[in-house]
Specification:
Largest sheet: 8 strands, mixed
Structural class: alpha+beta
Mean pLDDT: 91
Number of strands: 26
Strand content: 25-35%
Oligomer: single chain
CATH superfamily of the largest domain: tricorn interacting facor f3 domain
Number of domains: 2
Shape: globular
CATH topology of the largest domain: Immunoglobulin-like
Distance between the termini: 67 Å
Strand order of the largest sheet: 6-5-9-3-2-15-18-17
Radius of gyration: 23 Å
Low-confidence stretches: 1-38, 508-522
Length: 522
């Protein structure tokens, strides 16, 4: 294990200057309009991948690529940004517009994002806020319809006003400034997911608005090159792999990252962070902590390393070069982002006994959310139930079956037994639940119990093989409940199929919904 209070940015620059220059040349080729790159346009992103998984980029196909540059003004709480986004049309439909999500505008995020200019293929174009989206979706007109298998080059500039929240440890702030930490997930215009319709040409863009109790972002696999200019004393935690970190002057530093296949990009930073790292299975795992929390920060590193090893063995290898875990103004909760697990500050102190299980859950999301993705607003159970059940595999591997069974009873079964509506199916939208307790008990606790029931039906070997096959089939893709049910059906086990239907989509609940809808229409 290596320890570094603060990275030696100058030494870092000297060691990788030539690599950075080569990557920059590749990036310029990637983003040039009207010219074809001479080599593989995805070579620029290879440093983010473990060497044995660099071919993942070659087989990825056409995906959105983002070249983002931002400058943080901490005095005014402003972020100035620009982006070049290459958008391929991977559908069979003709597109006359593109839709980008402005997630900082969500009520629970509290930001204010002003789009200053938009160009498409070097032409000035018009844009409007998509009606009914509370200004969280921007519709950009195209100069000419974008045909399938063609790509549009979009350039944007924006200004982002960053919210400030209370400086108390119990605050739950997904976006903005609190306790000398700055969390900026999705600080850029993010291409919305295009959802084809069974009727040709009738697809549409996903513009749903999540609520505070669930996750908000839904995204296709993309590739990111991000440059951030920050105060020189700020230590950044970000998705991807750091390529360069250089002093511009005594007051500012410039950092550059690239990612592998990723759902989104997070920038999280603080002038107070200290860190340590170690290597596990070819990945550099880094843990950050605030002053006074070194013991918990080092423990979080141990938990993250153990989780990475266990889940790599059980589900499939983690393909990226970096993984991080860091404190955030999330009270005692956590939030997953590509290659980064943010952990509420109170679990480093007041709720220290919850730190291990929280890290184990959030790290599991690197498999179930980052690599295999799903709609978190309408089908949250697909990633949350598996991430939660992963805790049992983690506890079993480290502490034995008895400890895992005890955890299952106290963490899941007791909660479900205490719920007044335990018969609700797993396939529910976040907004369908009338409370956080109901949502978390059904989606997390009942979801985990379902996977344990499924495991007992299949046996350990077949259960793990099912998860490995599922992971391999849908890696870097979006999965739906229908896809998941099809994977169950492929096992050719009618009893298991009925079991899945009873837990995921119970007929009694669905029938009641139909009856209620019929009554309301009379």
């Amino acid at each position: 294990m290596s320890y570094h209070p603060r990275p030696n940015r100058l030494l870092h620059l000297i060691l990788i200057t030539f690599v950075a220059l080569a990557l920059l040349i590749s990036l310029l080729a990637l983003t040039a309009c009207g010219t074809e790159p001479t080599g593989d346009p995805y070579d620029v992103f290879q440093p983010a991948m473990r060497p044995e998984f660099k071919d993942d980029l070659k087989t990825l196909g056409a995906v959105p690529t983002y070249q983002i540059s931002v400058t943080l003004d901490t005095e005014a709480d402003l972020l100035y940004g620009s982006a070049i986004i290459n958008v391929p049309n991977n559908s069979l439909d003709l597109w006359d517009a593109l839709v980008f999500r402005l997630y900082p505008m969500l009520g629970q995020y509290g930001g204010l994002m002003t789009i200053q200019s938009v160009l498409v293929d070097n032409q000035v174009t018009s844009f409007i806020y998509q009606p009914g989206t509370q200004r969280t979706a921007l519709r950009v007109s195209l100069p000419a319809p974008l045909r399938p298998e063609k790509t549009a080059n979009v350039q944007m500039r924006w200004k982002l006003e960053i919210p400030s929240w209370r400086d108390t440890s119990d605050v739950y702030a997904l976006f903005g400034k609190s306790q000398e930490m700055l969390s900026l997930p999705l600080f850029y215009p993010a291409l919305a997911v295009y959802q084809p319709n069974i009727r040709f040409g009738r697809g549409d863009w996903w513009t749903d608005i999540g609520i505070v109790r669930g996750d908000a972002a839904f995204a296709d696999t993309s590739l990111f090159w991000v440059t951030a200019t920050l105060p020189a004393n700020y230590v950044p935690v970000a998705s991807g792999t750091l390529i360069t970190s250089t002093f511009i002057n005594n007051e500012q530093s410039r950092h550059v990252w690239v990612t592998g296949p990723s759902r989104e990009f997070l920038l999280h930073t603080s002038p107070q962070f200290t860190s340590a790292y170690t290597e596990a299975y070819g990945t550099r795992v880094t843990s950050y902590w605030l002053p006074g929390d070194e013991a918990a920060g080092r423990a979080a590193l141990e938990y993250a390393v153990a989780a990475l090893r266990i889940y790599s063995d059980e589900y499939g290898p983690y393909p990226f070069r970096d993984m991080s875990v860091a404190p955030a103004p999330l009270s005692y909760r956590g939030m997953e982002y590509p290659q980064v697990s943010l952990i509420g500050v109170e679990t480093y102190s007041r709720y220290r006994n919850s730190l291990e299980s929280l890290v184990a859950h959030e790290v599991a999301h690197q498999w179930w959310y980052q690599i295999v993705h799903n709609d978190p607003v309408n089908e949250p159970w697909l990633d949350e139930a598996l991430a939660e059940y992963s805790i049992k595999l983690y506890v079993e591997a480290l502490y034995g079956e008895t400890s895992a069974d005890n955890m299952q009873n106290s963490r899941w079964q007791n909660r479900l037994d205490g719920l007044s509506t335990p018969g609700l199916g797993l396939d529910e939208k976040v907004a369908d639940f009338d409370s956080n307790v109901a949502y978390e008990t059904i989606i997390y606790s009942k979801g985990a119990l379902f996977y344990d029931t499924m495991r007992k039906r299949l046996g350990d070997r077949k259960f793990i093989e099912f998860l490995q096959d599922y992971f391999q089939k849908y890696r870097y893709k979006i999965v739906t409940t229908a896809d998941w049910m099809a994977a169950i059906e492929a096992l050719d086990d009618p009893t298991l199929m009925q079991l899945a239907q009873d837990w995921v989509q119970p007929r009694s609940v669905k029938a009641a919904e139909v009856e209620n809808q019929g009554a309301s229409s009379q």
